[in-house]
Amino acid sequence: MVLLMNDKLQHFIVGFILSITGIVWFPLIILGFVFGVGKELYDEVIRNSIVGGDWLDIVATFAGAILATIIVIIILEIR
Known about the structure:
- This protein is mainly alpha-helical.
- The chain contains three helices and no strands.
- The protein is elongated and about 45 Å long.
């Protein structure tokens, strides 16, 4: 259970960090979303026999990316 929560937290953090780069250049905001889907597609297609994809990983990555997106939009509106 602890490892599962740790994995989801890692996905959340990566989604957040990738999307928060939208502060520098707004189109970068999609990185967290693209990575979330891309990583799980990779796990499902390439590593299928070992790990397989997990839709909850996508949800966790998207949650971090959404939080970062909200922060970026607020910061850019203030500027």
